[in-house]
């Protein structure tokens, strides 16, 4: 199995409740578990899913290929609406972390507007009139203005998120900023122990708020799903299964050694390979195994579905070969 996250659920009509024991009363269950093991898969439902007055069986299964790293909980729910109990699997979902970019922004904290206005008034703007070219005038004006701004409104480094999480509200961001400020005040000494305790309380509060906000957001997204397609699109978005398609590089034609780079040419080359793979294998097999035969069987091998006449001819030839083998002709 090459899928990263494989989940198969349903009624398999094969009891696996005692398949791990040494008893031989459940051969189909043993065979099913052996097949799953050979494909590196595992059933995570261990409790009986169908209970009658005389029997208990585990036939409703949930099969996954990475239970240790992805499945956090699984079990059976008795909803009393059918003779089969409901099974569930809790999957660990990894939230996509949006990237951040570093940008220099103006820091307006501590700005003295009156002092800024006075300095702007004292700037020798007349210097810009000494230039004839409009580009030189603009450049000189920007230098004078930027010099005043850098003095009163210095720049600082800020992290800008490329894609903000939709469930992070202003209230949560306020608590996150508070958490960051408290952490900045801690230096690991006893003098800042009070800040450290307050930081831990704020950190736990932020974690709880983020989890609750994300749960409410995805619950509302699932409620908006009007059909199966919308539902599974939401599941794909939750589990972050969007994958980028890798570009196929140049391909070389086997017969002409031509290097193919266009998408149409590569598609035709791949299509031609799979269309003729059966015929090419049949020709190789016929050439290797039947060099001594004079009868041309290429048409028989090239067809995907043989006719009744072909089957009859093959049957007669096989019977003749068996009789020769019995008589010692070979």
Automatic annotation (TrEMBL):
Location of the Endonuclease/exonuclease/phosphatase domain: 4-87
A GO cellular-component term linked to this record: extracellular matrix
Gene Ontology MF annotations: catalytic activity
Source taxon at top rank: Eukaryota
Identification of the protein by name: Endonuclease/exonuclease/phosphatase domain-containing protein
Organism: Acropora cervicornis
């Amino acid at each position: 199995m090459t899928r990263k996250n494989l989940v198969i659920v349903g009624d398999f009509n094969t009891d696996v409740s005692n398949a791990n024991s040494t008893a031989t009363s459940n051969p189909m269950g043993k065979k099913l578990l052996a097949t799953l093991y050979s494909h590196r898969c595992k059933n995570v439902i261990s409790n009986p899913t169908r209970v009658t007055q005389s029997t208990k069986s585990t036939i409703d299964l949930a099969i996954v290929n990475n239970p240790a790293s992805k499945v956090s909980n699984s079990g059976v729910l008795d909803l009393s609406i059918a003779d089969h109990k409901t099974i569930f699997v809790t999957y660990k979902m990894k939230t996509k972390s949006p990237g951040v970019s570093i940008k220099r922004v103006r820091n307006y904290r501590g700005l003295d507007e009156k002092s800024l206005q006075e300095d702007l008034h004292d700037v020798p703007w007349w210097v810009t009139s000494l230039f004839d070219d409009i580009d030189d005038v603009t450049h000189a004006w920007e230098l004078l203005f930027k010099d005043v701004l850098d003095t009163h409104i210095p720049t600082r480094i800020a992290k800008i998120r490329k894609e903000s999480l939709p469930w992070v509200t202003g209230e949560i961001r306020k608590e996150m900023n508070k958490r960051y400020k408290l952490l900045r005040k801690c230096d690991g000494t006893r003098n800042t122990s009070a800040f450290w305790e307050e930081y831990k309380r704020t950190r736990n509060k932020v974690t709880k708020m983020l989890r609750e906000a994300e749960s409410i957001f995805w619950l509302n997204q699932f409620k908006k799903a009007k059909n199966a397609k919308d539902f599974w699109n939401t599941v794909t978005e939750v589990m972050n299964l969007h994958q980028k398609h890798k570009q196929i590089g140049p391909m070389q034609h086997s017969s002409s050694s031509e290097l193919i780079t266009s998408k149409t040419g590569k598609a035709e080359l791949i299509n031609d390979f799979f269309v003729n793979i059966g015929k090419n294998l049949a020709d190789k097999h016929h050439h290797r195994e039947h060099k001594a035969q004079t009868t041309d069987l290429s048409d028989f091998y090239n067809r995907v579905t043989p006719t009744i006449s072909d089957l009859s001819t093959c049957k007669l030839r096989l019977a003749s070969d068996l009789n020769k083998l019995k008589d010692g002709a070979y």
